[in-house]
Request: fold
Amino acid sequence: MLTIGLLGCGNIGNIIAKNHVGVEIVALFDQMPERAEELGRLCHAKAFGDIEEFLSEDFDLVVEAASVSAAQEYALSVLEHGKDLVVMSVGAFADEYFREEVTRRAAALGRRIHIPSGAIFGLDNLKIGQISGITKLLLRTTKNPRSLNMECTERMLLFSGQANECIKHYPKNTNVSVALELAAGRAVEVELWADPDVDRNVHEIVIEGDFGEATITVRNRPSPDNPSTSYLAALSIITLLKNLSEPMRIGT
Ligand SMILES: NC(=O)C1=CN([C@@H]2O[C@H](COP(=O)(O)OP(=O)(O)OC[C@H]3O[C@@H](n4cnc5c(N)ncnc54)[C@H](O)[C@@H]3O)[C@@H](O)[C@H]2O)C=CC1
Ligand SMILES: O=C([O-])CC(=O)C(=O)O
Reply:
């Protein structure tokens, strides 16, 4: 069975630990050691307070569910320790230089980096953008101000521009924009809205290209323990882990 180490024992880390299928969690690390220890008691895995010791433990794959800055800080080290990597905080790869460096190291070391679909649907066929023209790619994200850690009394536009800028300002809320960018191989226009009248994390994706047109609207339930993060994101990573050891691959 695939063995994993969880880097980040917050909302997603806890959901993975309680619901994982087809993998064994053996090691845990969090910048707040008490979180790793608490989760360790729950899933009978070893909690580490030191990243070097965590990465030196014997397991196959690191699942990052921490933060964009954690993914940037630890990705190369994970690969150097001979482990594959699942990155939830995909906004880390908005930095092109960093993305290329990590990809180059992974190729040289024979390691793989997996990016889950996270809080959206549609990443699979959006990858056709790498071989065929996509003329428009827009993400319109709307969340309750609570999910954005702010207050407002009416719908307001917080950001309009490119994904690689948006993620710098909203690293806890717009990782999906960078996932879209990586899948399509082109820039994504992003609008981020706060709306006190919505109780979902809503992602509207508009795609136009040689294939035709598609519009996808995902109305996600926020996770109970972290309203910034949609519950779908945690389900997506659990599914990715389950699929890793299955012989048949479904979806592009
Ligand atoms: N790709 C996608 O579609 C989505 C990605 N995300 C991202 O997934 C990540 C995890 O989300 P949640 O579990 O809801 O967040 P959370 O805030 O509930 O948990 C994150 C945990 O990671 C720990 N952490 C943060 N920085 C760290 C560091 N440098 N070193 C060690 N531990 C660190 C925190 O102490 C916390 O326990 C976030 O970056 C979030 O933005 C969330 C939703 C969708
Ligand atoms: O969970 C969501 O709805 C999206 C999210 O926070 C992100 O992309 O960072």
User: Anything to note?
Assistant: The first strand starts at residue 2 and ends at 7. Residues 123-219 form a domain with the Dihydrodipicolinate Reductase; domain 2 fold (CATH 3.30.360.10). The mean pLDDT is 97.
